[in-house]
Amino acid sequence: MNTAISFNDVTITFGGNTVVSGVSFDVKADELTVLVGRSGSGKSTLLRAINRLNECFEGCTTTGSIMVQLHDAMVEVNSSRMSPEHLRSRVGMVFQTPNVLPISIERNLLLPQTLVCGASERRAREKMEMVLEDVGLFNEVKDRLNQPAKNLSGGQQQRLCLARTLALEPEILLLDEPTASVDYKSSELIEQLLLQLAKKLPVLVVSHSLKQTKTLADRALLIREGKLAGTWSTSDNTSLDELLYNEF
Amino acid sequence: MKVGEKAFGVFCWFSVLLTMLGVGGFLAFLVHEGGSAVTVSLFFEDTPPLDAIFSFAPVWDGIWAACFGTLAVILLACIIAIPMGIGCGIYLNEFTQGRFKVLFEFCIDLLAGIPSIVIGLFGFALILFLKHTFFPDAGTSLLLSGMCMGVLTLPYMVQSTQSSLSGLPEELRLMGASLGFSKGQTIRHVLLPSASEGIMGGVVLSIGRAAEDTAVIMLTGAVANAGLPRSLFDKYEALPFYIYTTAAEYQSQAELQRGFGAALVLLALSVSLFLLAHGLHNAMKQRWRRG
Question: Is residue A238 a part of any domain in this protein?
């Protein structure tokens, strides 16, 4: 089974405070992996370490090795030869709160493509329609693509963010509690989308919901106080409840 | 607690009322005193307006040359202060931290606190120095006034840009980075458009300050009856200077009325420039939103 992401003895500190300590695990390419744990356990920090987004915060230091599979080869993300911009365009990320740009729906999807991939207008528009279809948003927005993206509902905005990330054709997809700020129906819709996407590319989701972890996870990694406290996989004989019994 | 809240509400309401009354009263006074003086003759006196505008025919007693001079100084100040101020604001907020940032911010605060007469004196001293060293032909001019006015208005642009950028949510920066944008792309395509309202406030303040300041231009190139400047190195007339000299030396009520008329024109000019700036801003914002 291919490894898409590999953590080896990773420690992350912010201004001297250790947030993640000596974490090692692998994420398989054909599985949907869920990082699960209580708020403040270090899940999001771990996720941001994969696309080096922690570097945007002052005083962050990462030690250990994080390898990701890009262009069919395992590469070290913290290597000096790896540009953070290239890494982040290949390792897509969706945040907890929908963060659409205060511009039109279509421009939210076209701008990253033209800036990051250098896509032509025609190609970017084709891709836009494709990813809007993929996230089930095309029929809802096709007649108002010029309207501000902020006018969409929270769930629609989150799906737009997912579409914007997918438009860059990432090789790995990271999601930081993607349903935490949307309603129940949107949450279900996004979960179904993630299950579909996991068939095409490696997906790593952060969640603090037991129900969501049960719905999504092929593999679950329990993070407690910045350390890996346990793992579970569908191939295990134990149930996920056993791993998470004391956490929720 | 409830009484305190109510009192605070009344205080805020009263503050707004007083401000509105102040502005309204000021405008009414200006219109009353100078409204009747605002005629074509105030601008061009006996010179045919079309000849003055298109053929640059000399206008000896009207304020046409002063309007032109004021517009030219504002334009020069904006050309210097807007890009430099935005650049400094971006650098301060996005690229520097620690002691250097504190030192830089202190320098900007210091610059903001320098009285305009001191900046005018600096410009005058600079031109004297140049005259006695490298450029014997150097003299006070439109260019010197524009540069000094640019320095005077620079802190408004720096501070408005910096405070607007620092007020943006951190998620915007993270979002740009997470999509693979470079820092420059995030600033250019995400942060600056999002902060444009605040930056626009700085532009309006700069235009207003450049339009009204008299101390700087008195020492750096504005004179009475200079006519239209033939180049950037020429002396020029300016509306604030005209208003100042008229107020100080008027010989008749009619002359004083012309001074009030010129003040009304200066106000109208500033408001027109604010509207133009807002129009440009709205057009840019629409373009950014729709692509």
Answer: no
**Nearest chain B alpha carbon to A102:** B289
Q: Can you give the pLDDT of all 291 residues of chain B as single tens digits?
A: 688 899 999 999 999 999 999 999 999 999 999 999 999 989 988 888 888 888 777 887 889 999 999 999 999 999 999 999 999 999 999 998 889 999 999 999 999 999 999 999 999 999 999 998 988 888 899 999 999 999 999 999 999 999 999 999 988 999 999 999 999 999 999 999 999 989 998 999 899 999 989 999 999 988 888 888 889 999 999 999 999 999 999 999 999 999 999 999 999 999 998 899 888 888 888 877 776
Claim to verify: residue B44 and residue B1 sit in the same structural domain? no
Domain assignment present for A113: yes
Cut 0.90: pTM above it: no
Minimum Cα–Cα distance from B188: chain A residue? A115
- Chain B positions in Cβ-Cβ contact with residue A101 (cut-off 8 Å): 175, 190
Given an 8 Å threshold on Cβ–Cβ distance, is A85 in contact with B182? yes
Q: What ipTM score was computed for the predicted complex, to two decimals?
A: 0.89
Q: Which of A88, A106, A175 to mutate to test binding with chain B, by most B CBs within 10 Å of its CB?
A: A88
Same domain assignment for residues B217 and B159: yes
| Total domains, chain B | 2
User: What is the tally of structural domains in chain A?
Assistant: 1
Residue in chain B nearest A50 by alpha carbon: B178
Which residues constitute the domain of residue B249?
A: 40-290
CATH at B182: 1.10.3720.10
Domain that holds residue A61: 3-233
Asked whether the beta carbons of B152 and B84 are under 8 A apart, the reply is: no
Those of residues 96-135 in A touching chain B at CB distance below 8 A are 97, 99, 101-104, 106-107, 110-112, 115-116
